[in-house]
Specification:
410 residues, alpha/beta, nine-stranded mixed sheet, 16 helices, 14 strands, 39% helix, globular
Length: 410
């Protein structure tokens, strides 16, 4: 089941923000994340805030229905316009995630995007992405999305091997994600991503190489590759605890990452974030870069998180409670926190160190600078960028990114 929300102070009923939140807003890009919390089935490794029809039955009534979900989410987009007042910024990026957004009718996704365009306007070069389950789209669906203003799509491939997909409880068949790339290209999408997962119990190096080669053969311009994290409370965690499948260790994850970086680099993909590779700067996911660079975004939908000018808040998790709040004319916010300057400094280090451009050494304090010098000597940071005042991870540093970050934030 979905993980718990953090604690925080109450969100005002009208969702209003402190005046300081919009100070300097004109210098920061604004994005929207739209969360669609529905899935046909729950994958064994997933602890995202998503719900199957069975899980929703009897807990939300008509308010939790996906049939009227688009209208509910549009209500929050309109609330965002009221809260942000006369903020003149057009929206730079829109990302529809889940869950499985493409369980909704394509026209619903287009209407949600149109509401953002109507309320805020879209930047001329706005990036508009939706995630998609390979089995939930077809050429006609993708054409409606493209005609409605979407210009980027991200397919959940995970693996090309059937036995790996079975462990993950993925429902699509091998080969379908690759076919989706061709269908998206035919519909006019210039930018297509495939998501992969490595380190699944029972996966071999050969399985992983086969997945990478299948993904590259499909012709995307962006690939995301994530190590499998076994979250407590998931079906996969229970299966591992019962001894039904083995746990993958960190050394295996490291080996798989090295394989991914080598195979992708040879195919012309450059890493720009620890888990993301693209064929060009234009192919990068700009929306995720907003997160990594601490820009502003409004997260609409159950459990969605937002950040504007140092204020971070999150919505109630259940679709029924979310819809009920908006129907009552109230913010669906469950809690929020005001980030201190120190909080924001630490978060910049945590997030920007994962990027190809790295983090300015000027953000580090004395102990962090000392740690950065040790990391440089150990081959975890690149020498030339360091001389120019930036901490940039080497390939070995990317394998140990979490440990490097812990040292630098001291």
């Amino acid at each position: 089941m979905p993980s718990a929300l953090p604690d925080g102070e109450p969100v005002p009923d009208d969702g209003s923000l402190p005046a300081s939140a919009l100070t300097g807003a004109a210098d920061r890009p604004l994005g929207f994340y739209l969360h669609v919390p529905y899935c046909a089935t729950r994958c064994g490794y997933c602890d995202f805030n998503t719900y199957t029809a069975t899980e929703l039955r009897g807990t939300g009534g008509v308010l939790a229905s996906r049939d009227n979900y688009a209208e509910t989410l549009i209500d929050e987009i309109r609330l965002a316009r009221k809260v942000l007042g006369d903020d003149p910024r057009p929206v730079r990026t829109v990302f529809v995630g889940g869950g499985t957004p493409t369980l909704l009718a394509a026209g619903d996704l287009v209407r949600m995007l149109a509401a953002i365009r109507d309320e805020f306007g879209l930047a001329e070069d706005a990036e508009v992405t939706t995630e998609a389950n390979p089995e939930s789209v077809d050429p006609a669906y993708l054409s409606v999305l493209r005609e409605g203003g979407f210009n980027r799509v991200s397919f959940g491939m995970q693996s090309a091997r059937q036995h790996v997909l079975k462990v993950l409880d993925r429902t699509h068949t091998p080969g379908r994600p690759e076919a989706c790339v061709a269908e998206a290209r035919a519909a006019g999408f210039d930018h297509v991503n495939l998501d992969l997962i490595y380190g699944t119990p029972g996966e071999s190096d050969d399985d992983w190489r086969a997945s990478l080669e299948a993904a590259l053969g499909a012709g995307p311009d962006h690939v995301s590759a994530y190590a499998l994290i076994v979250e407590e409370g998931t079906q996969l965690a229970r299966r591992i605890r019962r001894g039904e499948v083995p746990m993958t260790d960190d050394d295996v994850h490291a080996d798989r990452y090295l394989i991914a970086d080598s195979v992708l680099a040879e195919a012309g993909f450059d890493w720009y974030e620890v888990s993301n590779w693209a064929t060009s700067e234009a192919a990068r996911c700009l929306h995720n870069e907003l997160y990594w660079r601490g820009a502003d975004w409004w997260g609409a939908g159950p459990g969605a998180h937002s950040h504007v000018g140092g204020v971070r808040w999150w919505n109630v998790k259940h679709p029924g409670a979310y819809a009920a709040a908006l129907a009552a004319g109230k913010s669906p916010g469950a809690g929020r926190e005001l980030l201190s300057e120190e909080d924001r400094r630490v978060e910049r280090i945590l997030l920007e160190l994962r990027l190809r451009e790295g983090v300015p050494l000027g953000l580090l304090r004395e102990e962090g600078l000392a740690a950065s010098r040790r990391a440089l000597g150990e081959g975890l940071l690149e020498a030339r960028p360091y001389e120019e005042g930036r901490a940039v991870l080497t390939l070995r540093g990317r394998l140990l990114a979490d440990a490097v970050v812990r040292d630098l934030v001291d």
